[in-house]
Structures are given as structure tokens and as C-alpha cells.
Amino acid sequence: MKTLLKFIGIALLTFTFAFTGANTKIIVIDIGHGEKDSGAQFENISEKDVVLSIAKKIQENHRNNYTKVLLTRSSDAFLSLEDRAKMINKLNPEFVISLHANLHEDESKSGTEIYISENNKEIEKSKQLAQNIAQSFDIANSQIKTANFKILKDVNCPSALVELGFLSNAEDRKMLTSEDGQLDFAKKILKVINKD
Ligand SMILES: [Zn+2]
Q: Ligand 1 centre from 126 Cα, in Å?
């Protein structure tokens, strides 16, 4: 059943792709974790739900006929990192932004973190993407970190991973879980999508 659902999901994405005009740019928002993989967990708040909700707001508030925003999942579904990378490579987007939320035992630790991989095939464009994200989130370029996450190194397109904030920090948690906070994150990502 799960395999069937996954297949339908990929088929739907492919279908959407087939009906996208030649001049339309595809942007993929990868939604971290899902189903059995909750990601970071703080009390009853799961990273997988928080990032899904923010990604949906990105898609809902996207108003640009020249770009199409596709999500790697639209529900609480599990996708392996291999399947994510395969799906993204099939869609061949302009770039992918992977959304996550952080957790730390030090509850004072807060803020957004941006990651790229030096092993990504489009590293220069990934750097530019990360800088655009940094600008939108008001973070210095020097704060952009490198990590060899699969979603960064195994995709053929420019790719950046954003840890939006810390579920363990009270202020960040309020942003990550409130309607207004989620919309604010969505708008910051949309600013990156709508740049040039
Ligand atoms: Zn995560």
C-alpha cells in the first residue's frame, strides 16, 4: 500500500511536470522527514509536521506564473533519502530547498541555519542560492555552513538545506508552530523563489 501511495505521489508530480509550460521554472521544496521518521521532537511537536505546514504555505502563497513550486510530499508520508534525490533529479528543477527544524539540549540556542554541500554538482549555484536565503533571513554569508547531507550532494541541481529554527527554543518554537510565524518563514522562502 505504501509503495502504491508513493508511486501515485511520483506519478502526480510527473503529471504536473508534463503540463508545465516550456518557460516555466520548476522549484522543488523538499519537506524533511515524514511518517515513521518524525525528525526533531519537542514535547508533542514534530519537525515533520512543522515543515509540512510551512511548505504548504509556500505553495499556497506562491503567485508567479513563471515558476512552479512542487513539494516532495503533501502529506505525512515516508520517503527515503534515495527516493527523494531520485524524484528531484527526475523533476530537474532550477533548485531545491530542503526544509528542516532543529533541536538542541541547550534551550537558549536559536536561529536559522543554512547548509550546502561542496560535493553538489552545481556548487557555485548552490552557494548563490544559500546567499539568497541568507539575505532573505538576514543572516551573514559567513554563517552558511557545509555538510554532506544526501539531499545536498545526491541531487544534480543547486541545493540548500535550511534548519528554520530550534524547536527547543521558546521563541523559535513560537515562530515554527504559530500561523503567523509559519507564514513569515514561507514568505522568506518565497522571496528567494521569486528573486530574478
Ligand atoms: Zn530534519
A: 19
